[in-house]
């Protein structure tokens, strides 16, 4: 028997068929508020920031209606980006911020890994009852408000009454001016930046520690046992088995830590406000000061785009270098 | 209601909720105002909003004046909305382009010209500039005068020069007469040297803490003016700091650090042991800061005995100095009731009784000449005496394109670098001049 073949419904017809309509409405109702939220509070601000970068825009000036672009807030094309190479004060400070941000992020990442990976292995190796305590203790700073952390560490670093100098003096050393002496440095990095890195590591390492502990727990025991049967010692186990198997986690941690380091603001703003002599002025602080203190929102938008590009490139490079084609 | 209509309504409500959400931070809950008297029949009821920064004494002073105004204008109700200082600045920047700012804004004079585009000019029926110049000191008033137009009226003469704080306990401990009778800067420095204390490898008490952030720029400008110099180019097109007067001032100040050693520029500066903190924990014998610190300090540190005494001139006979305008009141160009808002501005700033109330409650130096001459001000705030004596010698700092940039990012860092010996006096003055003039680029 031959019959007329019913045309196959397209995907829109399928989606809105009676049987699927309920499901589609549910999905739409669940996603619409979220999408609208993203549109208004994420995509539009991003579009706004990108637009700002091409204008000499100040919120204090009335530009052309309706958005304030044009008029007294003129279109300047790529001038904001070209000026970054010039002699203006803001350009000098941008370059200083760029350099400091790169130094900060480049030091924070390896130091964080150098502390958290061995610590995670050590915690994973101890008895289960004590393990919980250690996890709690190391994670505690992470859940502390960054403002509180910065204030407390500011007191610890205080040159006259700070605990750190008190301890140094108690053992016969001489105190240091940790946060405000532009002369002091170590390995070419200003002491104030080292001091902030110390605080940041203390505050931030809990996250990575927990991630590494979880990753270590997911590594099948057979790999280590096989290596032990082959005669591998503890160091060889760590270096040749554990670290390679942590590679996917390492990628995740590296990307997150790097992005977080690039975006550090609150600790620096409170502890040094970018001083001494701009030695701790990082890009996000520079963006904040230009946008909200000096009303140079166009310039701040351009610096934001540079920071965005940096994060994009670094994330891409990291993902290429640490990519794996296997899983366990 | 069918299902389709329901979803359309739900989506519309969601969009409406998002659109009506506040973009700006919420101000502190409006301060409840006493109910206005019954308005006359047919008279329009006017609701005005006023923004101020969140300072309890400022809010209290404004409440009293508003109450008086509402008694005189029963059809007007003014509501105060206040913000923490930093949030206030950011809120102004975001709300003004959006047109959501209050009718009346208590604004710092040095910001006024930056926002002039968005402010209402003071109409002639309220006050002309020449009338205002008769009533107010020129230094604070000129902060509200931009391109030949008056955009508000000041309550405060923001002054840092003219006097310093002295710590009684530290003076007595050092065996120095209290209060001191300094005839010149040398006398002050001699006292300061005796006040210095060290603890092991570090200075623990600064004899004279003068590296005080804003104060550093004020001292440089005063030093130039008192030596007969000028920091504006003759045509007003920019600034000049490579002058003999600027050099003499900065060299002099450097010697206080390097020769007299009355302070340590690494330990006592804006970012480390700021004078407003260190002085009140007995870590500075003499502190350079404006009188605005005194009322708050008396509240917070009642156990510290201190006085505010005249600062000797750097040079010359007169205590010439530059000041930036202090707090005052402006009206938004977006206000629907500009006339009434302007009336209030005049009532709060130019009326002697109200201005006195405001200055006494907030502990600020009056911008209104008649209040400065009123004996009541010294009865209420005796520490004003040294500052009041020099008000006539003050002048407005001038139309800087960006006051905060000039103060914080240009002058202060280079002067500090001189004291910390990472820049020479000539290098610093050249850099200050170059960077300052870059602010004037078209």
Question: Which keywords apply here?
Answer:
heterodimer; A: 328 residues; mainly alpha; MetI-like fold; 3 domains; 14 helices; 2 strands; B: 442 residues; D-Maltodextrin-Binding Protein, domain 2; 19 helices; 14 strands
Provide an overview of this structure.
The complex is a heterodimer of chains A (328) and B (442). Helix content of chain A is 67%, strand content 1%. With 328 residues, chain A is an all-alpha fold. Chain A folds into 3 domains: 37 residues, no CATH class; 30 residues, no CATH class; 238 residues, MetI-like fold (Orthogonal Bundle), CATH 1.10.3720. In chain A, helix 4 crosses helix 13 and helix 11 packs antiparallel against helix 14. The mean pLDDT of chain A is 89. Chain B has 2 domains: 177 residues, Periplasmic binding protein-like II (D-Maltodextrin-Binding Protein, domain 2, 3-Layer(aba) Sandwich); 199 residues, D-Maltodextrin-Binding Protein, domain 2, CATH 3.40.190.10. Chain B has a 5-stranded mixed beta sheet. In chain B, strands 8-9-10-7-11 form a 5-stranded mixed beta sheet. In chain B, strands 4-5 form a two-stranded antiparallel sheet. In chain B, helix 2 links the parallel strand 1 and strand 2. In chain B, helix 9 packs across helix 10 and helix 18 packs antiparallel against helix 19. The longest helix of chain B is centred in the first third of the chain and has 18 residues. The N terminus of chain B is likely disordered. The chains are: A mainly alpha (328), B alpha/beta (442). At the A-B interface, helix 2 of A face helix 1, helix 3 and helix 18 of B.
Placed side by side, the strands forming the largest sheet of chain A appear as 1-2
> Helical residue percent of chain B?
40-55%
Rg over alpha carbons of chain B:
24 Å
CATH-assigned fold name of the largest domain in chain A: MetI-like fold
Distance between the termini of chain A: 54 Å
Silhouette of chain B: globular
Order of helices and strands of chain A: HHHHHHHEEHHHHHHH
The first-level CATH class of the largest domain in chain B is given as Alpha Beta
Q: Report how far apart the termini of chain B are.
A: 61 Å
Number of helices of chain B: 19
> Helical region count of chain A?
14
């Amino acid at each position: 028997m031959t019959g007329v073949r019913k045309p196959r419904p397209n995907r829109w017809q399928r989606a809105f068929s009676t049987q699927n309509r309920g499901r589609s409405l549910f999905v739409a109702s669940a996603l619409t508020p979220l999408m609208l939220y993203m549109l208004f509070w994420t995509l539009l601000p991003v579009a706004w920031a990108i637009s700002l970068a091409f204008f000499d825009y100040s919120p204090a000036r009335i530009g052309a209606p309706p958005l304030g672009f044009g008029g007294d807030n003129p279109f300047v094309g790529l001038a904001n980006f070209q000026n970054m190479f010039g002699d203006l004060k803001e350009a000098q400070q941008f370059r200083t911020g760029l350099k400091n941000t790169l130094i900060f992020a480049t030091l924070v990442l390896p130091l964080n890994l150098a502390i958290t990976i061995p610590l995670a292995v050590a915690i994973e190796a101890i008895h289960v009852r004590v393990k919980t305590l250690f996890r709690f203790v190391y994670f505690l700073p992470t859940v502390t408000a960054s403002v509180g952390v910065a204030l407390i560490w500011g007191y610890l670093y205080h040159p006259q009454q700070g605990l750190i100098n008190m301890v140094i003096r108690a053992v016969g050393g001489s105190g240091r001016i940790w946060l405000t002496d532009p002369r002091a440095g170590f390995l070419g990095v200003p002491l104030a930046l080292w001091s902030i890195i110390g605080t940041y590591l203390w505050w931030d390492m809990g996250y990575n520690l927990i991630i590494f502990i979880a990753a270590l727990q997911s590594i099948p025991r057979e790999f280590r046992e096989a290596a032990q049967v082959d005669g591998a010692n503890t160091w060889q186990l760590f270096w040749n088995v554990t670290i390679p198997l942590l590679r996917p986690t390492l990628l995740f941690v590296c990307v997150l830590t790097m992005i977080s380091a690039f975006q550090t603001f609150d600790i620096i703003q409170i502890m040094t406000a970018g001083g001494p002599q701009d030695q701790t002025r990082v890009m996000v602080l520079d963006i904040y000061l230009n946008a909200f203190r000096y009303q140079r929102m166009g310039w701040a938008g351009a610096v934001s785009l540079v920071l965005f590009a940096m994060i994009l490139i670094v994330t891409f490079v990291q993902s290429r270098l640490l990519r794996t084609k296997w899983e366990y | 209601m069918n299902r389709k209509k329901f979803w359309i309504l739900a989506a519309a409500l969601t969009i409406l909720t998002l659109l009506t959400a506040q973009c700006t931070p919420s101000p502190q809950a409006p301060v409840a105002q006493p109910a206005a008297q019954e308005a006359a029949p047919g008279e329009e009821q006017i609701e005005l909003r006023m923004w101020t920064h969140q300072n309890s004494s400022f809010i209290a002073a404004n409440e009293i004046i508003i109450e008086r105004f509402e008694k005189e204008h029963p059809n007007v109700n003014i509501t105060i909305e206040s913000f923490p200082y930093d949030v206030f600045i950011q809120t102004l920047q975001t709300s003004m382009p959006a047109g959501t700012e209050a009718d009346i804004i208590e604004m710092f004079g040095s910001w006024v010209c930056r926002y002039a585009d968005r402010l209402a000019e003071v109409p002639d029926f309220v006050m002309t500039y020449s009338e205002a110049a008769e009533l107010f000191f020129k230094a604070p008033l000129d902060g509200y005068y931009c391109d030949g137009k008056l955009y508000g009226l000041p309550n405060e003469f923001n002054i840092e020069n003219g006097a310093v704080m002295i710590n009684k306990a530290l003076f007595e401990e050092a065996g120095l007469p209290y209060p001191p009778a300094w005839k010149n800067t040398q006398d002050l420095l001699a006292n300061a040297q005796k006040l210095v204390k060290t603890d092991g490898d570090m200075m623990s008490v600064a004899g004279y803490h003068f590296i005080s952030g804003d104060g550093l720029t004020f001292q440089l400008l005063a030093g130039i003016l008192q030596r007969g110099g000028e920091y504006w180019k003759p045509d007003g097109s920019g600034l000049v700091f490579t002058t003999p007067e600027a050099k003499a001032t900065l060299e002099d100040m450097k010697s206080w650090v390097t020769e007299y050693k009355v302070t340590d520029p690494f330990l006592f500066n804006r970012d480390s042991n700021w004078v407003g903190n260190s002085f009140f924990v007995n870590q500075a014998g003499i502190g350079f800061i404006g009188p605005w610190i005194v009322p708050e300090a008396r509240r917070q540190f009642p156990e510290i005995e201190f006085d505010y005494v005249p600062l000797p001139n750097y040079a010359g006979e007169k205590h010439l100095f530059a000041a930036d305008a202090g707090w005052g009141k402006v009206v938004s160009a977006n206000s629907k009731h500009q006339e009434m808002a302007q009336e209030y501005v005049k009532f709060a700033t130019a009326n002697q009784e109200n201005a006195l109330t405001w200055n006494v409650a907030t502990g600020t130096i009056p911008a209104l000449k008649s209040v400065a001459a009123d004996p009541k001000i010294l009865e209420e705030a005796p520490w004003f005496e040294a500052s009041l004596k020099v008000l006539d010698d003050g002048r407005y700092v001038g139309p800087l394109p960006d006051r905060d940039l000039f103060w914080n990012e240009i002058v202060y860092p280079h002067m500090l670098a001189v004291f910390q010996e990472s820049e020479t006096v000539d290098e610093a003055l050249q850099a200050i001049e170059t960077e300052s003039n870059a602010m004037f680029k078209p």
